[in-house]
């Protein structure tokens, strides 16, 4: 069941759903607007020119209020908001149609697990032929929350728990678990 603004307000008031910082106007009829943070990360050039899934990937992190996303460029960004979801709530990350119409693709694998807490890392891609100026604090997307039929037996405790800033891939940790 997707949560309404009424339920979102109640959960935030009861502190069962935590979003910080949050302004009341961010709560929409069936979602919460998310804003762009000021941290951006890009994959650093590798001598081999090949990203290997078994090794840690080096990123260059930039803290700035304005970032120029060049045509066909990919960058990781973060939300301004820090979220703490209870064990019976999940969320979907959705981009804004207005930005998609400019060629800005926003994704983050699209899913926030129950029990997650942290800022949400967004993958941004400029599919346009023109550069796009990104500014911290700008509405970049929304979270749609859904109530689960019961609390998760194993709420999220993964490798991105508690993340702050534009967090690079930690897929290499999957390989370490298999060793």
TrEMBL record:
Keyword Nucleotide-binding part of the UniProt annotation: yes
Statement: the UniProt record of this protein carries the keyword Hydrolase: yes
Active site positions, chain numbering: 123
Binding site for dCTP: 96-101, 113, 121-123, 142, 156, 159, 163
UniProt site positions, description: Important for bifunctional activity: 110-111
Example of a GO MF term: nucleotide binding
Pathway: Pyrimidine metabolism; dUMP biosynthesis; dUMP from dCTP: step 1/1
Catalytic reaction list: dCTP + 2 H2O = dUMP + NH4(+) + diphosphate
Annotated keywords: Hydrolase, Nucleotide metabolism, Nucleotide-binding
Coiled coil spans: none
EC assignment: 3.5.4.30
SUPFAM superfamilies recorded: dUTPase-like (SSF51283)
GO biological process: dUMP biosynthetic process; dUTP biosynthetic process
Subunit description: Homotrimer.
Family label: Belongs to the dCTP deaminase family.
Function: Bifunctional enzyme that catalyzes both the deamination of dCTP to dUTP and the hydrolysis of dUTP to dUMP without releasing the toxic dUTP intermediate.
HAMAP family referenced in this protein's UniProt entry, alphabetically: dCTP_deaminase
Name of the protein in question: dCTP deaminase, dUMP-forming
């Amino acid at each position: 069941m997707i949560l309404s603004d009424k339920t979102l307000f109640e959960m935030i008031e009861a502190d069962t759903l935590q979003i910080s910082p949050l302004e009341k106007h961010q709560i929409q009829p069936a979602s919460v607007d998310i804003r762009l943070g000021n941290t951006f990360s890009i994959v650093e050039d590798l001598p081999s020119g090949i990203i290997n899934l078994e090794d840690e990937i080096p990123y260059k992190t930039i803290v700035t209020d304005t970032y120029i996303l060049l045509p066909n460029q990919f960058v990781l960004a973060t939300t301004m908001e820090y979220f703490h979801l209870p064990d019976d709530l999940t969320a979907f990350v959705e981009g804004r149609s207005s930005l998609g119409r400019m060629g800005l693709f926003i994704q983050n694998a699209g899913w926030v697990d129950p029990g997650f807490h942290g800022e949400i890392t967004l993958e941004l891609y400029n599919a346009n032929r023109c550069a796009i100026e990104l500014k911290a604090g700008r509405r970049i997307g929304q979270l749609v929350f859904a109530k689960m039929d019961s609390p998760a037996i194993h709420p999220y405790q993964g490798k991105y728990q508690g993340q702050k800033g534009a967090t690079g891939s930690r897929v290499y940790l999957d390989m370490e678990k298999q060793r």
